[in-house]
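Re: that chain you flagged

S.,

Sorry for the slow reply, it's been a week of failed gels. I finally had a moment to sit down with the sequence you sent. For the record, here it is as I used it:
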Amino acid sequence: MLPARAYGDTGITVSALGLGTIPLGNARMTDREAYDVLDYAEHAGISLIDTAPSYGVSEPRLGHWLQGRRDAFVISSKLGYGAPGIEDWTGPCITAGVDLALQRLRTDRLDIAHLHSCPLAILQREDILRALEDAKRAGKVRAIAYSGENEALRYALDAGRFDGVMASLNLFDQRVSREVIPRLGGMGFIAKRPLANAPWRFATQPTGEYCEPYWRRWQSMALDDPGMPWGELALCFTVWHRAWPRPSLARRTSAISPNA
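Prediction finished late last night. Pasting the structure tokens below so you have them in one place:
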């Protein structure tokens, strides 16, 4: 079974490896195929599942599958956009977005609610932060977090308003191990893109593909053949990264949302 790790000081405990559900939102995947993926994740001991309203039909599919097993899982989703008739990135959009997520997921709470890759100016808006905090006080959200990079991520670390953050950490992007993890304190952390979008799928530079920057870094590093599949090596690198506290691996989580 996967080891359990604390999501900061929130009282939330997650599996060291999480499941990102972008593929589950693809309409070309059948419901049965999506449920098979979730069944496999459950069998493997994964308790953290990450989704978002922008992931197609991921949330409603996950909501259907969760019936009768909700308490066994930590559900992370995203907020800030997509509430019909309400301006994106406003306090009312956050409030409505929480309720819409709860409806789609057929649950009474989001365990972790992330502001989804918004710029610094959004993070500094008091109406947005207040709406998040109101949802937490109402018991609709257990932990408030930010998902993103660079200056907005640094602000979220210092603002004193967030319970956790999500940022990229993989073989080809290790900045957060130096710049973020040492500053977490009691905040939780979810590492996204641990597979670096799997650049090893391409024999030549995949121009225009999401993983193109990672492919170029992979080539420039000139790594030796690891003697195992690259995907397995990438996951091991992030899950057992040297930045995580030893020996208990507690307080800060290295849970991963593998959206390859």
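What I noticed first: The two ends are 22 Å apart (CA to CA).

Talk soon,
D.
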